[in-house]
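Review form for a predicted model. The reviewer records the input and the model, then writes brief findings.
Reviewer: anonymous (R2)
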Amino acid sequence: MKKIQLFDSLKSLNKIEFREFGKFVRSPYFNNRSEVIRFYDAIKKYYPDFKTEKIDESKVFEEIYPGKKFSSVLMRKIYSLFVNLLMDYIVTTGFRKNTLEYNVKLLYFLYERKLPAELVKKSKLITNLLKNSFHTIEYYEYKFKHTSKLNGHLSDYVSIPDYQKELDDFIEQFLVIALVLYHRLLTTSNLHKIKYDLKLYKEVLLFIENNNFENVTIVAIYYNLVKLLETQDEKYFLKLIKLREKFKKKLTPILQYNIFVTLVDYSLNRIYKGDIGFRKHLYLLTKNYFEKFTFPEENSYLNPILYTGAIRNAAYLKEFGWINNFKNKYTKAIDPEILEETLNYSNAFIEFEKGNYKESLNYVCKVNPVKIAAKTNSKNLFIMLFYELGYYDELVSQIDSYKHFLRNNDVGETIRNRCLPFLKYLSDLLKIKQSGNKNNLTLFLKKLNNSEYFNLKEWILNKAEELIK
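Model under review:
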């Protein structure tokens, strides 16, 4: 177990970190066991893969303990010592990289050692660090701790420390943590139908509404995220757009991205309910995000559904110039394992909206997605292409196959309810088109216009109106 844990952990180190860890291992302050140093030297040639089947333990043991008979007990001990040392390295380097946390903790030690001059100097540095930091949960934690410890120092030398600021900083920290947790619980509740006990929820939101937290970045952001989840009221959607712009220099790339995804989800839900005007909203949101904000590229891939969704929506609006720029810049952010499939589907939809149906069909035939949402998108495109190309026998067969697929237990009710009406109305439209009876077409259009919105309703409306002309 320790062996697997060790090599999995070592794989997480990049080249610079692995070399630094070698220096860490050789430092007598952190490690005083020479066999651990020899172990590092023996296994470093296996970096970065560390495939256990290629590591000959007997040879490694011989390099650590020359002339000794192989002992599995000693090897397990070495693994254990090395894992512990690696964990020390990870926490030590992580702690030193977080400059704000490091200096706030140092402030506490300076206070305990009664070094006031150094404490005041360090406090000024922390103030500057806070001014230039992203606003995160940790930011509010360190801000409160800094104020609290500074007040402890001031109480020893000044008559009245700033206790009001200490309380205000604590309230901000509490509200930030509470709102982030409420948002997490509400999101999970909506996805998995789990009922949570949101303690103090009404009281916290009422407190925020009765006080001014417009300039407290994370409180303002998460209050509107929570209210949007709870109410689906457009005013919170619009407010989030303004707040994201207002605080963009204080938001981490991952929070910028999460806000963007929330805005996209809301826009899509409005579109699915028939508010087609939100297609323009969605396009402008996407364009704004990828032009003004930083995608969290480090150790992360762009969600392929988000990527294809952005292209699909822009293609609906015939924004092909923007699509080309978007693809040139962000295709590299797609996971290489699904890149070809993602590009084939995207190109298929672009060619479809340009009216190049045969080219579109060539692309979509190469797509074989695994996820349900991607499968339904591909099937929808296949069906529209068969209709546009006049492949009616193939269309009837595909509709029948699609219905069986949607009735499968793996398909969620939401997807099923969005797609089945599409197939029903398209089947009816095909019968009318093949019969040439325009009286039936008038009744069909009346029924279609009065129906609730479903996936691709506007496309069927366009096809029906073409038959009238």
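Findings: DSSP finds 23 helices and no strands in the chain.
Further findings: The mean pLDDT is 91.
Recommendation: see findings above.
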